[in-house]
Structures are given as structure tokens and as C-alpha cells.
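Severity: low
Component: inverse-folding endpoint
Summary: output formatting inconsistent between runs
Steps to reproduce: submit the following C-alpha cells with default settings.
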């Protein structure tokens, strides 16, 4: 064999070796397809979950299943004094995590975790059972496409691309229903505010009149303001939501503004408003007018929910069992809690009588010389009064029966992140 043929054979051999090496290298980096559930033990024991921790460097959400004598068990936020969680939000998150399906294996090298968002700084979800045994402990990374998610078990190096979506709120209050109370304005007949200095402000519904709420005890020579101050007080509890929540005994209630809402069926709702440096805090109680008298007592936050009524407590009228039951349910739900109100809502419960009255006319001595002469009264004709009145009632019903339920449904169905996207877009 001459030298030329030997060289050609050596070149072919080298090319085959290089090709084989490159093929082997490429195959070693090909995605490893996988099937099955990412967390099969959680999928099998999803009903055993009794504790949840969702955390990152700058925040932590802790939820726990709390045993109660009245309701059996409920999910609560320990960092909010054990306030109940919206169970449907938690159920969706846990079930979605248990249903994550493997698609393919990704990197097992720590230096590459950050590209997938599964390094130690990623959001970490830990689920435990009632014995504190870990059912799942995973880092939730970046999303891929519409149904892809990068994940990694905290105890393993291997990361994965899984099929599924997990929506977990990162704010404590996004885990709860922030609606406090909702009183149908059609049921409310009177509202009375009592200030710490003894001043009372009272409004009552004025059927068929405009404005629809009348201010009581107007001083002689004064008139009710034509604006909607009285109506705003009458409808103050048509919708109330909170910005924060805490155990009721964590707030000083020694000096409060008390609002008393009396409904046409005899239900009485008392609202105490206390001012703190961080804002206005509310506590609620309820009773039946004919049973508890003119001042229904505030429910004792320290009393057990299952305590029987006192032996000398008056019996509810046979005609108002539903109202008595509604009052009992309101007390059971709200007595243990204090709610921080938005500023605009707190302001509606701090009105003074002067806020409900038309301004006094300017003193004659203070009037400009050009206006010293007596000016004849001017009567303003309002040909649109019937239309305005009809539209006021139409808008009130539209909001209560259509727009508000639609908004509640939107908040319940639409994931928090999607709502944020839509809000930011507009």
C-alpha cells in the first residue's frame, strides 16, 4: 500500500471517529422525554395537605389547617391572627400543583438554574401533612409557552419542564375574601353616628323624596345640604372591603365613632370606628331591634363561638327567626376581627351634622357693596327632575344587581396575574 492510499485511509478513519464523537455528544444533550406526574406522592395524597408555605427572599405566605370546635377545620393565615383563607383559591393552587405533568428533563447543573428561574432565589412552595411530613418542596421557575413551567425539587439537582400552570398569590390579603359586609340599601331605614364628644348625626330614608335620605334634628334656620352627604351615609355599608385585618383585641376601642344601621326587618348592625396611626379600624356586631333594645351590645370577641346564650337573654320574636339567625351569623363571622378600612370609606362614617347642612349665607357686613341691595329670590326650574330621579334609581339597581355581581365573578374567576396584566394594559 503506497503512502497516498495510506494517508487517504487515515483521513477517512479520522473523519469517522470525529463524526461518531459528535453524534454521541449531541445525543447526550438531547432532551430526555418523560411522562407521569412531577409530584406523584402529592397527587396521591392531595387531600392530606394541612400546611402551605410559599416564600421568596422578600416575602413569605404561610397557611395552615386549623381545627375548630364549630366548623371542624378551616384554612387560616397564622400571620394574620388566624384569619380564614378563601378556600377555593387555596384548593385551586394545591390541585394545580399536584397535577403538574412531566414533559422533559432539563439541566442538573446549578450554574444553569438561573436561566430557568429555579435557583435558590426562586419562589419556593412547600406542602406538608398534619404530621408535618413534607408532601412537596419545589422551586417554581419561569413559564414556557401557555402551559409550560420550569420546576425543581428542593432536594434534587435535576430540573424539569412540566405541563401545567400554578397561580399562587404573593400578597397575604390576596388569599382571603376582603369583603367585610354588604347591606342592601333597600333594607336600611336609619343610620345614626355617635361621636366620642357626644354629637349625634342621624339620617333616615325618605321614600319618594329627593334627596332620598333625610337628615334629622336640623337646627332652626338651617337646611339640609342638597348634595349626597346624607345618601352617602345611608349607603355606607352597601359595600365594605378591608385593606388589612387583625384580631379585635389588638386595637384600642376606648374612643370610637359608633354607627348604628337599622334595617326595615329589625336587624341592627353596629360599627365602631377607631383611629390609629396606620388608619381607621372597624369592628362589627349585630342584633335584633325588638330583642336587644335601642343599643345592641357589641359581641364579646373573647367568647367562644359555641357558647350558649345567657339564661336571662330575651327570646327572639317568632316572626323574626331569620333576622335573629342573620345577626348570630354576622357576630360569629366578625366578632373576633378588626378591619382596616380604605380612607374614603372611613370618611363616610366620620360625618358631622355640619357636613350634612347647607352653608350659612354670608353675613351682611361681609358682603360686597355691590350686593348690599336686596336681591330678589331666583327660582330655578328643573325640567329634567323626573328623568334624573328615574336614572338615580336605575343606576342604583344596575350597580347592585348586575355590575357588582359581575365584578365579584371576574375577581373570583380571573387569576390575579391576568387581572394585573389587564390593569397595566389599560
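Observed output (run 2 of 3):
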Amino acid at each position: 500500500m503506497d503512502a497516498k492510499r495510506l494517508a487517504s485511509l487515515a483521513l477517512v478513519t479520522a473523519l469517522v471517529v470525529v463524526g461518531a464523537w459528535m453524534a454521541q455528544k449531541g445525543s447526550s444533550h438531547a432532551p430526555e422525554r418523560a411522562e407521569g406526574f412531577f409530584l406523584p406522592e402529592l397527587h396521591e395524597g392531595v387531600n392530606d395537605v394541612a400546611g402551605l408555605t410559599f416564600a421568596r427572599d422578600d416575602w413569605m405566605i404561610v397557611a395552615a389547617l386549623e381545627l375548630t370546635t364549630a366548623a371542624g377545620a378551616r384554612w387560616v393565615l397564622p400571620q394574620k391572627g388566624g384569619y380564614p383563607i378563601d378556600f377555593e383559591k387555596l384548593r385551586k393552587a394545591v390541585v394545580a400543583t399536584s397535577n403538574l405533568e412531566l414533559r422533559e428533563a432539563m439541566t442538573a447543573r446549578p450554574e444553569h438554574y438561573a436561566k430557568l428561574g429555579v435557583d435558590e432565589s426562586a419562589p419556593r412552595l412547600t406542602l406538608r401533612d398534619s404530621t408535618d411530613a413534607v408532601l412537596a418542596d419545589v422551586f417554581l421557575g419561569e413559564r414556557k409557552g401557555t402551559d409550560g413551567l420550569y420546576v425543581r425539587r428542593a432536594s434534587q439537582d435535576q430540573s424539569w419542564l412540566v405541563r401545567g400552570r400554578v397561580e399562587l398569590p404573593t400578597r397575604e390579603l390576596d388569599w382571603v375574601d376582603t369583603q367585610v359586609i354588604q347591606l342592601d340599601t333597600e333594607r336600611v331605614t336609619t343610620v345614626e353616628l355617635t361621636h366620642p364628644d357626644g354629637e349625634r348625626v342621624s339620617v333616615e330614608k325618605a321614600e319618594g323624596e329627593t334627596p332620598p335620605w333625610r337628615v334629622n334634628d336640623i337646627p332652626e334656620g338651617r337646611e339640609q345640604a342638597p348634595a349626597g352627604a346624607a345618601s352617602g351615609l345611608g349607603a355606607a355599608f352597601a359595600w365594605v372591603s378591608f385593606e388589612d385585618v387583625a384580631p379585635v383585641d389588638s386595637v384600642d376601642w376606648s374612643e370610637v365613632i359608633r354607627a348604628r344601621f337599622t334595617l326595615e326587618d329589625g336587624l341592627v348592625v353596629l360599627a365602631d370606628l377607631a383611629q390609629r396611626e396606620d388608619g381607621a379600624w372597624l369592628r362589627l356586631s349585630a342584633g335584633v331591634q325588638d330583642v336587644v333594645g335601642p343599643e345592641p351590645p357589641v359581641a364579646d370577641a373573647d367568647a367562644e363561638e359555641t357558647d350558649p346564650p345567657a339564661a336571662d337573654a330575651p327570646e327572639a320574636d317568632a316572626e323574626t327567626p331569620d333576622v335573629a339567625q342573620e345577626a348570630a351569623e354576622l357576630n360569629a363571622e366578625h366578632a373576633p376581627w378588626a378591619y382596616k378600612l380604605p380612607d374614603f370609606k372611613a370618611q363616610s362614617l366620620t360625618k358631622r351634622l355640619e357636613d350634612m347642612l347647607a352653608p350659612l349665607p354670608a353675613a351682611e357686613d361681609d358682603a360686597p357693596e355691590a350686593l348690599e341691595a336686596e336681591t330678589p329670590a331666583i327660582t330655578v326650574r328643573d325640567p329634567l327632575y323626573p328623568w334624573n330621579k328615574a336614572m338615580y334609581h336605575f343606576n342604583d339597581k344596575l350597580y347592585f344587581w348586575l355590575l357588582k355581581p359581575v365584578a365579584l365573578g371576574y375577581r373570583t374567576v380571573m387569576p390575579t396575574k391576568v387581572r394585573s396584566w389587564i390593569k397595566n394594559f389599560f
